[in-house]
Every structure is written in structure tokens, then in C-alpha cells.
Amino acid sequence: MNSVKKLDLLEKTLSKLAGKTILVEGKKDKLALEKLVDAKIETAVGKPFQVINKLSSKKVVLLFDFDEEGKRKTSFFKQFLEENGFSVDTSIALRLRSCLGFLYVEDAYVKYEKLLGEKNG
Fold it and tell me: Which of 4, 18, 91, 99 is the most buried (most CB within 10 A)?
């Protein structure tokens, strides 16, 4: 997929995140995403029930790293949140990764800038 198509898909994906509640692993992930999207971004820091208390919506987008630890946390929090009445979306994370090619969420904004540079040439 060329950079123009990736940017188009990325913009559509980011627009779906606007106003949503997004759960990320840590502070660096939150800072990177705040540069990309206007959403309520919370970190999964603390005990699971402490994390739940931070969430402002029962609909949550999980956006954790794609390393082994991030995959484990995604699986854990998806199950934990659903068991506690939350609707969980993990598909947007996969779309973002396919557009930007990051392993770690904290790299998302840098990858976005690189993609913009490729498009502009």
C-alpha cells in the first residue's frame, strides 16, 4: 500500500477514534496518541479495578503494544473489561498498526510524521 493510501486509511481510522475512550499501556503511549487524536486516553497503570475506575465510558478501545507483553495485556484487559460489562474494540489497533507499522504505541506519532514526509516527498 502506498503512502497516500495509508494516509487515507489512517485518517479514516483516526476519525473513528475521536471522542472515544482509549486504554493504553503507559504514559509514553498516551503522549504519542494525544498528538494524533482527540480522545479520552487512559493508562492501564495500577490494579485492574483501579484502571476500570478511570474509564469514562463502557465502550473502550484497547491499544497496547504488539510485543509479547502487550499482546498478553490486550488479552487480559479484553477479558477483564468484558466480564465487567464493557464493550471492547481491538480492531482499531490492528488498523493503526497496518497503516503506521509500529511495534510500540509510543512510536505511532513518529511513524505518522515519517508517512507524511513520504507523501510530501
Answer: 99
